Input
Amino acid sequence: MDSNNPITRPLFGHRKFWAHRFGPAPFLPMSRAEMESLGWDSCDIVLITGDAYIDHPSFGMALIGRLLEAQGFRVGIICQPDWNSAVDFRRLGKPNLFFGVTAGNMDSMVNRYTSDRKTRSDDAYTPNAEPNKRPDRAVTVYAQRCREAFPGVNVIIGSIEASLRRIAHYDYWSDKVRRSVLPDSKADLLIFGNAERALVEVAHRLAKGENLNEIRDLRGTAFMVPSGWQPSEEWEVIDSTEVDTPGALVQHADPYAMEMPSQAASTAAVAGEHPVRIVSRAERLNARRERRAHTAVRLPSYDQVKDDPVLYAHASRTFHLESNPGNARALIQAHGERDVWLNPPPIPLTTEELDQVYELPYARRPHPAYGEAKIPAWEMIRFSVNIMRGCFGGCTFCSITEHEGRIIQSRSEDSVLREIEEMRDKTPGFTGIVSDLGGPTANMYHLKCKDEKIESACRRLSCVYPDICENLGTDHAPLISLYRKARTLKGVKKVLIGSGLRYDLAVRSPEYIKELVTHHVGGYLKIAPEHTEEGPLSKMMKPGMGAYDRFKQLFDRFSREAGKEQYLIPYFIAAHPGTQDEDMLHLALWLKKNNFRLDQVQTFLPTPMAMATTMYHSERNPLKKVTRSSEQVSTVRNGRQRKLQKAFLRYHDPANWPLLREALKEMGRADLIGNGKKQLIPAWQPAGVPGNPCGQPVKTGKNQSSEGPKAGFPRRNEALRPGSRPSLAAAPKRSPAPRKPR
Output
């Protein structure tokens, strides 16, 4: 890497700031008293977060704080401040360089509200899970309070909430398209995605006296500029409607092959005309790449997309097509008389850089100020190790791709093993059980495109849909090696895998499945088919059930060979765009046929900027070119239908039977009401359950039995029996997991 180029400079290639002489702090200070004990008279950078402070690399503010500290800066942190005034934001004094503002590891709206827009009763990132410790749209509120506390201070926003709101976006909770978070927060700079490169560069340049409002050349940043602004005269701005759609998803001819001289060129040379220089395709692509580096794509303005769902879908598609760091162009979107300017996404960290980030001197526990309070998110990841980041799956309902990118960034085997040993030696309560070696997915470790040139030119939205790309490496050998070495470490009794598994990739490596099932499954393994029907699966960009069936066959086979009774825990989504009530009925019948009784189920939650959210809002399919006459997508909006689709997932719950009976009759499927093996729900209602408080049998039609519990009442805590499917009533709760480092 070029140490003088801000785009490619190594993450730890800067000369350290003078304050490095103070050395690393036991914990980043949260009070003036802690600052004084460290010998500090001020902080260079103050981080504001909506989470409790846990000094562990799975928590974004700890990772960013320790990274900035390693660059020589004095970093303080203010956690879950009282946002009703600016007083709490003055706790550590005015930062010398900037405030870094984040809502926390989760989007504040997702953190505070369910998919039914109801307020959650707890917060996994707060001591003792206490709710209401952060405001709605926390980034905006915190940034405004920083301005009130110290007028003129530099404010930089980032992490998941800011990333997903960097352009105009549909907001599910207010049911409207909202502006970019930049004009609302009045922040000077937004850093999206994995923020390490841009944040380190900004900090050092500010320390050298540069003005934050003049730093406009960093990838992974967004900012407000006057309408029509361009970095220089050599830049070209094109309208998004001129952007070509990507080519075929499966065909991948080599774009770097030398092109043969054309017949016309040969004829001209013979005729004695001026010689024509034959330009190779590689040269043309290099020239095109150079032009792209100085090209910006103008999206439809906020005023246009807020009133026109079709333009919103077009803007969303364009945004996602410009997400590959190898070929993405800058994006512009007008907000009134000013523009939001987005530079291309950041260059992913190398393995060496990622190792260094994760091996900074974390205390690996909550700040002592919390005493004995329990922080659920900390308890969840306390004995886990993050081995990678990013996801090339492209699932339309997920925000990982929009935030962390499709290129997998993996740590080295040695670095992961060192962290396990450090966890063993430093983390209180370690009993020898590693709860997870994972990340956004459990088995994308060191998987990548076979050719860096093809990867940099690719514009696919997913590497695994509709089929696994022929250029994607699927060798699980590095992960198998890591598992084997991890479980042989001194003091380690067992290594479990808790992250979700991409089973369509796993079936490419039966040896991996055997290793996983034999040594790393604690009775249950979670996977996410999400649905059984092609309609919703095509809108999710998820594989069909054939891949699930192949994986289950191998899972069961290797479990038997290991002499273990183990079960898969499948997750499914109700009310996803493209899902009809009939799709949910077929899924419910599949669940009953396979004796699955799901306890924790998920209703689709439209999160900002996800492609499924675009489908929900616009009723158009952004996976294809968007026009006025393009494919429309059915969406589930009204409360009764959302409740019904969720009820199909919990067909065994008596509280859902009245609604299901009514729906089955409306669908012309009253034949599924009864106590037969092929019927979905019984014709009677038990005592004390909504719909029949007195417990009288409910008859619903001819030839339908009204027998009591013995014949048709599902036992929610049914014991596991050899050869049976498990009841999932006691399965691990699918609660919000801590986001991966920002």
